[in-house]
Amino acid sequence: MFLLASLAVVVLLAAVHVGIGSIKARSSRTHDQWHSIAGGVATTYAFLVLMPKLAAAQVALQRDPERGFLGFFEHHSYLLALIGFAAYYALDGAVESLLLRPQRRSTHVAVKGTVYLFASAFAGYYALMGYLLGEMSERGILEIGLYGLAMVVHTSAIDDGLKQKYLGLYDRWVRWVLATATLGGWLVAVLTDVSYTTLALWQSLFAGVLLITAIKDELPSTKRMDFRSFLLGSLGFALLLLVLDALGSIG
Question: In Å, how far are 72, 100, 103, 148, 200 from 61, measured between CA atoms?
Fold first, then answer.
């Protein structure tokens, strides 16, 4: 019923990937303000929407009889979120250590291989973002809208950072890979059906990566961070969620 709404949001997300490369460089002040707002929205979404879902899912998963390797993670959703957090942090650190060493920038195998791996990791993250959006097609227009709002703001800030980090690479091919991955993830969700436990597992992984990307890639360093902009994004989105919850519009 709400398939068209989720389709509109995923197309908008793909458009952000492609279009961010056409946006002219802003002043550093405006750049930091926007990233601070985006970081506030993303972290608020993680703590007020994703974390409660993980808590509810954990109770259900602990009753599931699944055992073995997959069953272990299904019974430890927070551990999977931590793995996503740590894996992204480690990979991002490896990329930065290579790119910040001038003498190694020309080492094509090491640098290019790491950049391709990092781009692939982001493609997987955005595919998961699109997938979770596709899974919302039966949940209601409001949940889709809130997710879409948070992810569009989040994605625009992340992609802006990727553009700055990878310079011409983002415009040449990275943006197209990310747009395709987002649309592909949504399509997989629409065309397939997964169990509640599997969906909870994907949500756990997504929550961990969302948190570290918001902290590492959206929030400027302490010296550059605009705390008022962060509060504007965080408190503004939190207020929206609380008002809608009080009205009984979200569950």
Answer: 10, 43, 49, 27, 8
Query: For the packed helices 77-99 and 51-62, what is the interaxial angle rounded to 10 degrees?
Result: 130
Alpha carbon separation from 155 to 19, 68, 72, 76, 132 (Å, rounded)? 11, 35, 31, 28, 15
CA-to-CA distance for 84 and 91, rounded, in angstroms?
A: 11
Q: CA 236 → CA 20, 41, 147, 151, 214, distances in Å?
A: 24, 8, 15, 15, 17
- pLDDT digits 0-9 by tens, 1-44: 688 999 999 999 999 999 886 665 555 667 788 888 888 999 89
Return the beta strands (E) in 93-157 as ranges. none
Query: Cα dist. 124→59, 71, 103, 120, 179 in Å?
Result: 27, 22, 30, 6, 11
Please report which helix (H) or strand (E) contains residue 206, including its range. Answer: helix 196-213
Count other C-beta atoms under 10 Å from residue 53's C-beta: 15
Predicted local distance difference test score (pLDDT) of residue 106: 46
Residue 49 DSSP code: I
Instruction: Record the pTM.
Output: 0.85
Query: Which pLDDT tens digit goes with each residue over 188-231?
Result: 999 998 877 778 788 888 988 998 888 887 776 655 667 888 89
